[in-house]
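Sequence only, no structure available. Ideas?
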Amino acid sequence: MKQMTPVDVEALLKEKTTLPIIDVREVEEVKTGKIPGAIHIPLGLLEFRMHELDKSKEYIMVCRSGGRSAMASKLLESRGYNIINMTGGMLEWQGPVE
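Reply:
I predicted one. Tokens follow.
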């Protein structure tokens, strides 16, 4: 599984302005703020909503600390998606939130 730190993701965001980021936290967690432009798909719904994702794109998975996003990454990788897990999750995110 590919991995990136929150610092790496923030640097990429400065270069590209938009990245395909998927936040797999629960609704209450996302209310505290998410990475601007991130798509919110709770982990429990990911299997039912993966058809919304494009297999030709590379997605960055985000959660609170990196554990759930790692599980989401493994699930999507097993189905043929290109995934990067953001280690440390939102606990280590120092960039902007919306």
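Residues 2-91 form a domain with the Oxidized Rhodanese; domain 1 fold (CATH 3.40.250.10).
Hope that gets you unstuck.
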